[in-house]
Design brief:
It is built from 17 helices and 23 strands. With about 525 residues, the protein is of the alpha+beta class. It folds into three domains: about 160 residues, no CATH class; about 100 residues, Beta Barrel (OB fold (Dihydrolipoamide Acetyltransferase, E2P)); about 160 residues, no CATH class. A hairpin with a 5-residue loop joins strand 10 and strand 11. The two termini are about 55 Å apart.
């Protein structure tokens, strides 16, 4: 029996041609329900022919489960939309009726016990039109499809995923990656069947992801342990089971196929966005809403937890290319849980490239961090000074010299945060006539305006009109909060000449274009593209 998993690129084909005699339904889209009179199977597709001579194109895999006499129901898509929800009622053959349900799902819950204390997960139907809102999946069904491989020749038990990788279950993340690469090369060289390479990739995509590996290890120790749906479950699901009496829930007895939503991506991300653990690192990019796990074999370098102490000083970026699976994250905001869409990289399809000066930037960041500790008392004096007044950067540099700090020490680093993108600071500093530091902010005196920037993720850029006297502006600004400016409390915004905020957003170039407009700088289209 063909099996589709997280490593599979072949999607389950949606319906491409719909019958023209729909029945009525209480759903927003009309429902077609027709009986199959013949099935025409091609190389990749299958054509289900109905009694009214219309056809429904499905994947060959779905078509292999359809027989003459079966009933097929699906919502008719509106306009140019393509329908993917199909309910097949098996009428052919002896015995009771059975049902096959192909449906796009949006999110799968975490395991929880039912009344019989058996664990299950529920998959949310995404834009369904047949009235089904949830697919009920016992954890045993998940185990059979995702966590157990078919019996190997000559064996009565299932091979473990570690056995597929030819590595013990105590292997580190780096050892797992190396084992996967070596075994994949062996299979290629030996001309092994494609199914063996799929099984290998499947194994690594489970044990190469820490949460799924923990789940799998728990299942090895106790087959009754709850199982999670890998990578959140966003994609197309084909299951065998039966609908509830009210038709709102489909109870699955077996998963025939799951095809996740995959996207190939290539981008650069600052290394400082990683959280470093002993044997792995988690990189989260909140702007792109994606995350991926790194191991020393993927990054081509070793680290330890002390990197978290000085990673905010790292300017280097890594080039990431990989296949990402759409998933979801639940977060509580204002007392309510919200589901946000994220993407997670498949370990088997993740590649990382380092910049040419990667080692040099690591050493520079380490040295700067060491200096922070070595000259901590002097830096504390500087921070105390910045709490009460805005100080020009050149004055701070003279102060650093008087406190015997090295001449190449960058005093701007005292306010830097780990999640801040240096792009914003570089663009403003190159336009500034003078730069001031105040608490955790930078104040840039540019030609036609004053710009205030907080070097931390989530803070907007504040733009003010050019004051007649910079000292008077700073004296007033240091006595007023950002909330006073936004609310214009006691006319604070008017007195400071507040022109507005510019959100950093997901596109730094869009931020730069708006900032240049706000500060009265002529924006040249060709130059904007070059930036």
């Amino acid at each position: 029996m063909p099996r589709f998993g997280l490593w599979q690129d072949d999607p389950i084909m949606p319906a491409e041609r719909m019958p023209t005699t729909p029945s009525t339904s209480s759903s927003s889209s009309p429902i077609c329900c027709e009986r199959v009179v013949s099935v025409q199977r091609q190389e990749r597709l299958a054509s289900c022919v109905f009694a009214n001579r219309t056809k429904l194109l499905v994947s060959r895999f779905i078509g292999s489960h359809v027989a003459i006499g079966d009933d097929i129901a699906f919502p008719v898509p509106k306009g140019d939309a393509v329908g993917t929800e199909i309910l097949i009622t098996k009428n052919a053959g002896a015995g009771p009726k059975g049902y096959l349900y192909h449906v796009p799902i949006a999110y799968v819950s975490q395991p929880k016990p039912d009344k019989r204390n058996q664990h299950f997960v529920s998959a949310e139907v995404h834009h369904g039109g047949l009235g089904v809102g949830t697919v009920f999946l016992p954890c045993e069904v998940l185990c059979d499809y995702f966590y157990r491989l078919p019996h190997a020749d000559g064996r009565l038990d299932h091979q473990t995923l570690y056995e597929i990788l030819h590595i013990p279950d105590s292997a580190s993340p780096s050892e797992l990656r190396v084992a996967f690469k070596l075994r994949d090369l062996e299979l290629k060289t030996a001309g092994a069947p494609h199914s063996q390479r799929l099984a290998l990739e499947r194994a690594f995509n489970i044990v190469g992801q820490p949460e799924l590996r923990a789940c799998y290890d728990a299942l090895l120790a106790d087959p009754e342990a709850p199982a999670v749906f890998p990578y959140g479950g966003v994609g197309s699901l084909l299951v065998v089971g039966e609908p509830s009496r009210d038709g709102q829930t489909f109870f699955a007895r077996r998963i025939l196929a799951f095809s996740p939503e995959l996207r190939r991506r290539r981008f650069h991300v600052p290394l400082r966005r990683c959280d470093f653990y002993d044997d792995r690192a988690l990189c989260r990019d909140a702007r792109r809403k994606l995350e991926f796990w790194l191991d020393p074999a993927a990054l081509h370098t070793l680290w330890d937890r002390t990197w978290n102490q000085w990673k905010h000083l790292l300017a280097t970026k890594i080039e990431v290319e990989g296949t990402f699976v759409q998933t979801g994250k639940c977060r509580k905001r204002r007392g309510e849980w919200e589901l946000t869409t994220w993407e997670t990289a498949l370990p088997s399809r993740l590649e990382v490239k380092l910049s040419a000066d990667f080692r040099q930037q690591l050493e520079t960041a380490r040295t700067t961090h060491h200096r922070f500790g070595q000259y901590s008392q002097a830096l504390d004096q500087i921070r105390l000074c910045l709490e009460h007044r805005a100080v020009e950067k050149t004055e701070l540099e003279r102060m650093c010299s008087g406190l015997h700090l090295p001449g190449d020490f960058d005093v701007a680093q005292v306010s830097w945060r780990a999640d801040y993108d240096p792009f914003f600071y570089r663009q403003l500093s190159r336009r500034a006539r003078r730069i001031y530091l105040f608490r955790d902010e930078y104040i840039f005196d540019v030609e036609k305006a004053v710009v205030v920037e907080t070097p931390q993720l989530g803070h907007a850029t504040y733009v003010f009109a050019k004051p007649r006297n910079m000292d008077s502006f700073l004296a007033l600004y240091t006595r007023i909060t950002k909330d006073d400016i936004r609310r214009n409390h006691n006319n604070a915004a008017e007195r400071l000449g507040f022109l507005g905020r510019v959100i950093h957003g997901t596109n730094p170039r869009a931020w730069l274009k708006e900032v240049r407009q706000r500060i009265g700088e002529k924006v040249d289209s060709a130059a904007a593209i070059a930036w």
